[in-house]
Amino acid sequence: MRAAVNFIAGLIFGLGLLISGMANPAKVQNFLDLAGTFDPSLILVMFGAVVVTLIGYRFVLRRPRPLLAERFLVPTLKDFDGRLVIGAGLFGIGWGLSGFCPGPAITSLLLLAKGTFIFVPAMLVGIGLARILTQASLPAGRVIPAASSED
Amino acid sequence: MVTEFTPIASMLGGILVGISAVMLMAFNGRIAGISGIVGRLLPPYAGGDVGGAASFILGLLAAPLVYAAATGAPFAQNVSGNAALMAGAGVLVGFGAGLGGGCTSGHGVCGIARLSPRSLVATAIFMATGFATVFVMRHVVGG
């Protein structure tokens, strides 16, 4: 049941990235190219996704618990810190250079482009490096809840 | 390379992404953040529910096959074949998402939908550096 629900959610997410055109890095880079071949499509993808999620979360989070888990794991961090700012800044540079972010890159794997086969392993290395760095710099004994460290 | 503005298809695709995000919260109680879901498949597996994360990724991987079967043609995309560029960009995206606690889906969709100030700031920052990067790449360096 759980595997089926997650598989279907992943399939719907991936189809959304394909139908919206966001799995095409050229389209994402054109959104980011205000001074050139600007394509505003990405903002409509975000709009559609945010509105559905905002309304859906309102109903879902009113329930006592999720249907297949013990509790809701919603990020609780509130403060801005250097990690958020630097992390988001570096993320945007990589996103602009390639036109890929994690979802579209993984969805693209079976489209068999050479660049995707380079990007995805490099991305996994990057995630691993960030994990090593953040865990090494944590004060001893402090535990970051899983849902708040990575959302 | 010019791409066509696709308001209807893009809004529809965004709605599908939103439906998926609501499903994950309703069933698993989790945010649909792809960098976080991928991270759960890497050791030391501290995020939990490795099986759920793996199933979700399998669904993502299957999407282009279903798309091709439904439309009769594979999804057309333009991916840079510049190995050094894609390797550097991949490390930056992974490292940045890991350090910043999320990516375009976790911050840009789920976080904004939760009206999280951190996610609003993160999204504004990665959009800004994304705009700046493409500007430099296409209009300063590339021309």
Overview of the structural elements:
- The complex is a heterodimer of chains A (151) and B (143).
- Chain A has seven helices and no strands.
- Chain A is mainly α.
- Chain A has one domain.
- Chain A is globular.
- The C terminus of chain A is likely disordered.
- At the A-B interface, helix 1, helix 2, helix 3, helix 4 and helix 5 of A face helix 1, helix 2, helix 3, helix 4 and helix 5 of B.
Topology at a glance:
The complex is a heterodimer of chains A (about 150) and B (about 140).
Chain A: H1 2-19, H2 25-31, H3 41-60, H4 82-98, H5 102-107, H6 114-136, H7 146-149
Chain B: H1 7-28, H2 34-39, H3 50-71, H4 83-100, H5 106-113, H6 117-142
Strand content bin of chain A: under 5%
Shape of chain A from CA axes? globular
Please report the number of helical segments of chain B: 6
Share of residues in helices of chain B = over 70%
* Overall mean pLDDT of chain B: 96
Unreliably modeled segments of chain A: 140-151
Average residue-wise pLDDT of chain A = 91
Query: Which protein chains are joined by the largest interface, and how many residues does each one contribute?
Result: A-B, 123 and 120 residues
Our measurement of the CA-to-CA distance between the termini of chain A, rounded to an integer number of angstroms, reads: 23 Å
- Report the end-to-end length of chain B measured between terminal Cα atoms: 13 Å
Rg of chain A, nearest Å: 18 Å
Provide the descriptors you would attach to this structure in a database record.
heterodimer; A: 151 residues; mainly alpha; 0% strand; B: 143 residues; 6 helices
Explain briefly what this protein structure is:
Chain A is mainly α. Chain A contains 7 helices and no strands. Residues 140-151 of chain A have low confidence and may be disordered.
